[in-house]
Design goal:
Number of domains: 1
Largest sheet: 5 strands, parallel
Distance between the termini: 23 Å
Oligomer: single chain
Number of helices: 9
Strand order of the largest sheet: 3-2-4-1-5
Shape: globular
Helix content: 40-55%
Order of helices and strands: EHEHHHEHHHHEHE
Strand content: 5-15%
Structural class: alpha/beta
Radius of gyration: 17 Å
């Protein structure tokens, strides 16, 4: 059993395109569908955030009336893209919700997810005059550069993700599976979810989505 891991930046405006490109390559290389696709979400929280894609589109149009439709659509599609991007490529895949049961730090973190994400995109778009599809890679670089390296050591969420992935891998007869994780959880630092899996004998192929 091989676990193919995508290390993503959750706020990457080019994330959906890069992730689906990688997923399509996997589909062309494999003879069977994945046993499951694990995502870094609780299902109920994901559904509450996913419906805010329309909200962020409206916010972006109001903030940048000069922006092209392609630019607005990309920001909308990027909201929580890690939770369902795989369904465009593997529509029948079993989704494993690695954060199932997680409680948000505050209710406003979920209810205002689109508003908080817009603040990040406003910072990422500073200094960019033409807000079209060509601006997205530059914004992506800002988002990726804001990710701090994961320090070595254990963390409860890495421990949880590793356990749920390990249990799911042991419980399937398939030959391969997919995990879509934040870049730090997929890093090679000691104690990350993927580091824990590798040290428990799981074969992992990791690809960071900043150059996919």
């Amino acid at each position: 059993m091989i676990l193919h891991v995508a290390g993503v930046a959750h706020a990457d405006p080019t994330g959906p395109v890069r992730l689906q490109r990688w997923l399509n390559r996997l589909r062309s290389q494999q003879k069977s569908p994945p046993a499951f696709v694990a995502v870094e979400w609780d299902q109920q929280i994901f559904e509450r955030v996913r419906v805010q894609r329309r909200t962020i589109a409206s916010l972006a149009k109001a903030r940048w009336p000069q922006a092209t439709p392609e630019f607005i659509a990309a920001l909308s599609a990027a909201l929580a893209y890690e939770g369902d991007a795989h369904l465009h490529v593997f529509p029948s895949a079993l989704t494993l919700w690695l954060d199932e049961g997680r409680k948000p730090d505050s209710e406003s973190d979920i209810a205002e997810f689109a508003v908080l994400r817009m603040r990040l995109y406003e910072r990422a778009a500073e200094g960019i005059s033409d807000l079209n599809a060509g601006a997205l890679p530059a914004m992506s670089m800002v988002v990726w550069s804001s990710i701090l390296p994961r320090p070595d050591g254990s963390h409860p969420r890495d421990d949880l993700f590793a356990k749920r992935l390990f249990d799911a891998l042991r419980g399937t007869t398939g030959s391969w599976a997919i995990a879509i994780l934040g870049a730090n959880h997929a890093s090679d630092s000691a104690g990350s979810a993927i580091d824990l899996l590798i040290h428990n004998g799981t074969e992992c192929s990791v690809k960071l989505m900043n150059d996919a």
